[in-house]
């Protein structure tokens, strides 16, 4: 793919949150600039935690739709029987409890972007209606008769292998072809470890400013360990570790933890389920601090207790 002159000037703008110097990340940046103003449907694939939403938001920010809304829907987080009304809205009396009409996410995204995350988890029964909306850019609310026209750019993301899902009959082939006019695949972090130092610095600056620790420095020894680690949770896992280090400064604890979670020195690996539960609890405490629910001092006390209990 030929280099794009606009790429450098965009680095400090809409593309600034796509951090990395690996060839894969550079190709993704170039592809974003190629397709941002085309309105061609895009599917972003990759493992959980690689940054699919970051790429979706960069597409939006680089496009002429940036002044319109960006509406995200997590198809895996909403029960199948509620997803249709969430996407397309409903009229008063459409079902028990529908006391007033409500617009759906497609209406709210009119003139902008709708980002359908985890599209591979959308029920087959709803895929046909989505296909019709993609083809005609119009739909009816549940219980309604009036066709509603919308002008929406559809960007989707998945950690599924959609081609395999099509073969197994869990995803419509016609919908797959309609959605994946442009395919952007984000490799896992373990396949682009040259991005790790830049990501560490990026998150250290963000959370250093957020928590008043602007003098935070990442120790070289820990960075070396990060470069060897497998990162099953990808960029999200790395971000949570950096956030924790900025708040707690517990470098030795994190080093021991990483060694337990890996086979870098031949130590027995902790199961992913144990690791994920521990990381979830740490992230929850840090999220409470971000939201102002708990004082940072109290969060530090709680997290230290969790670390000591897990040691």
Give a description of the structure.
The protein has 311 residues and is of the alpha/beta class. The protein has 2 domains: 6-187, Rossmann fold (3-Layer(aba) Sandwich), CATH 3.40.50.300; 190-310, Orthogonal Bundle (Helicase, Ruva Protein, domain 3), CATH 1.10.8.60. It has 14 helices and 7 strands. The chain has helices spanning 6-10, 23-35, 52-62, 80-88, 105-108, 124-136, 162-168, 173-179, 196-210, 220-228, 234-248, 251-260, 272-290, 296-310, and strands at residues 42-45, 70-74, 113-117, 138-139, 148-149, 153-158, 182-185. The strands form 2 sheets. Strands 2-3-6-1-7 form a 5-stranded parallel β-sheet. Strands 4-5 form a two-stranded antiparallel ribbon. Helix 6 crosses helix 8 (173-179), helix 9 packs across helix 11 and helix 13 runs antiparallel to helix 14. The N and C termini lie far apart (49 Å). The model is unreliable at 1-5 and 264-272 (pLDDT under 50).
CATH topology of the largest domain: Rossmann fold
Beta strand %: 5-15%
**Whole-number average pLDDT?**
86
Helicity range: 40-55%
Number of helices: 14
Strand arrangement across the biggest beta sheet? 2-3-6-1-7
CATH fourth-tier homologous superfamily of the largest domain: P-loop containing nucleotide triphosphate hydrolases
Q: What's the story with the biggest beta sheet?
A: 5 strands, parallel
Instruction: Provide the gyration radius in Å.
Output: 22 Å
